[in-house]
Amino acid sequence: MVVTRSLRGVLTTGAAALLTALTIAPLAYMSVVSFMPRGESSTLPTPLWPSRWSGENYYELLVRRLIDGAWFDYRIVPALWNSVWVASLSTLLGLLLTVPSGYAFAKLRFRGRQRLLQLLIASLVVPGQVAMLPLFLIFKELGLVNSYAGVILPSLAGIFAVLFVRQATLAIPDEMIDAARIDGASEARIFRVVVLPLLTPVVVTLALFMFLGSWNDFLWPLIVLADQNRYTLPVAVAAIAREHAADAELMMAASVVTTLPVLLLFLTLQRYYLTGLLGGSVKG
Amino acid sequence: MTRQERAAWLFCAPVLAIIALVFVLPTALAMALSVTDYSVYALGDWQNLRFVGLGNFVDLLSTPLFWRALGNTLMFAGLGVPMAIGTSLAVALLLHDTTVRWKPLWRVLLFAPYVTSVVATAVVWRFLFNERFGLLNRALGAIGLPPVDWLGNPHTSIPAILLFVTWKTFGYNMIVFTAALSAVPQDLMEAARLDGAGSWRRFRHVTLPAIGPTLLLAAVMSIAGFLQIFAEPYVMTMGGPAQSTTTVLFFMFEEGFKWWNLGQASAVAFILFLMILAITLVQTRIGRRYEWL
């Protein structure tokens, strides 16, 4: 019994390891090809390992060079900063807007609360793409097309985030809040001193969701940004991918630059992410 | 107004105002836009805008590419949902086995593709699918199969993109199913084992009924996800070959932001909305049936 059980353990663990290896393989191959000398990945038989490790793709992708008297670069570095900037700002502002609101919907009594809540839940049905065409026209009137504000603003309408925070806040006992109220604390102070510390894990999870969501967002930035110097990474990578489809090594380097920051962020904070995934079920 | 009420409005008003501006107002305008002939002329001057009633919808019905896009999208959903849900369930079942070691490690790594950018990984997979130099055809060659022109053949383009989408997204439902599996009553499982039920019958009669609602809900929710496929064809195939990967959303994007037929595109958006609404109604009905929501 003991022997068969341990044999079974070897088999099932082996299967899990194999499956994981297959899943990670595309990402690993992406990294390996990005270090191949230019053109090597397009030889037969398809190489699995570089003949020599080369940084030339990253150099070409990231460093601005003088070609025939004109400055040239792939605008990946500006795109990287744009992405960092846009994702950070939309996370920060998103948290500032949605966390207090989620708390209010859970714990503060105000007229119309229940109706507003039902409206918010119902609006989850509407796919964001429906709003995009008129939103583009509205932003055009407001002069927000082709601006960072134009990219960030729609990501701040965090209906899901409000409901997510509300759900987590419901678990905080009313007695704690009432006790602080009897002690004469103002509502803002109660939120900051009593509630916020208890919500820290939820806020970290939400921040992670928001940052990754904004970093990976594609359709809306593609619509609203026209100036190549304002492109976020996915938009920039998609643009380069169209012009340089044959330069596999260069494209893999661009993909590494786009995926690596969020992969590292996820691996560091995976506990928050995976528990948040299950806690996120929205109940009315 | 009480002090509490004032504080509540202070906390809620900013986000509600933004939701109203970037979500509620445009959604309402989308309905209005879909009954106009808003095009590049109206973009220049509002005077050129005309009311056309259901004209856009009638036009769409006689546009072959729209039907093609609708058919492709249904194909994506019809094939993709069983593929993605099946993969998630199989992997979750494997990870649920008590003898598997280092589970947290596998779980995190299997989930990793989900957090990556669709555009960046689509670029990677486009190269994996390359007919001459792609890793996939090299693997096929190793077992003696002829190379496949994955993204260049209208018959394999959808399965190829689905392979990529499944790889990218199965981790999400894997986590959901893992949680559902750990809630399967252990005493029932033990009783079935004592009654001599084999592993298939234990799965069929104990596990499946217990996780059934979760499975159904995940399937319905992933239909909505597959209806919104856009970045994959945009990066990998441009809707081709022979329009075999033009999806509803891709069609809407081209119609709206390439040709600037925003009226027509809004009609497409509206139809997409109706499809997702229908699915959500099914979803809440399922939820109610199992007393979930």
From TrEMBL, chain A:
Highest taxon in the source lineage: Bacteria
First-listed, main subcellular location of the protein, grouped into a coarse class: membrane
UniProt keyword Metal-binding present: no
Bilayer topology term: Multi-pass membrane protein
Subcellular location: Cell membrane
Transmembrane stretches, start-end: 84-105, 117-139, 145-165, 190-212, 250-269
Record keywords: Cell membrane, Membrane, Transmembrane, Transmembrane helix, Transport
Database matches in SUPFAM superfamilies: MetI-like
Keyword Plastid: no
Biological processes per GO annotation: transmembrane transport
GO cellular component terms, A-Z: plasma membrane
Ranges of residues in domain ABC transmembrane type-1: 80-269
Pfam families xrefs: BPD_transp_1
Protein family (similarity comment): Belongs to the binding-protein-dependent transport system permease family.
Protein's recorded name: Carbohydrate ABC transporter membrane protein 2, CUT1 family
Organism: Sphingomonas rubra
TrEMBL record, chain B:
Membrane topology category: Multi-pass membrane protein
GO CC annotation terms, alphabetical: plasma membrane
Entries under SUPFAM superfamilies matching the protein: MetI-like
Residues annotated as domain ABC transmembrane type-1: 70-283
PROSITE patterns for the chain: ABC_TM1 (PS50928)
Residue stretches spanning the membrane: 74-96, 108-128, 160-185, 206-231, 259-282
Major place of residence: membrane
Biological processes per GO annotation: transmembrane transport
Cellular compartments annotated: Cell membrane
Keywords: Cell membrane, Membrane, Transmembrane, Transmembrane helix, Transport
InterPro entries the record matches: ABC_transporter_permease (IPR051393), MetI-like (IPR000515), MetI-like_sf (IPR035906)
Family the UniProt entry places it in: Belongs to the binding-protein-dependent transport system permease family.
Protein name: Carbohydrate ABC transporter membrane protein 1, CUT1 family (TC 3.A.1.1.-)
Organism field: Sphingomonas rubra
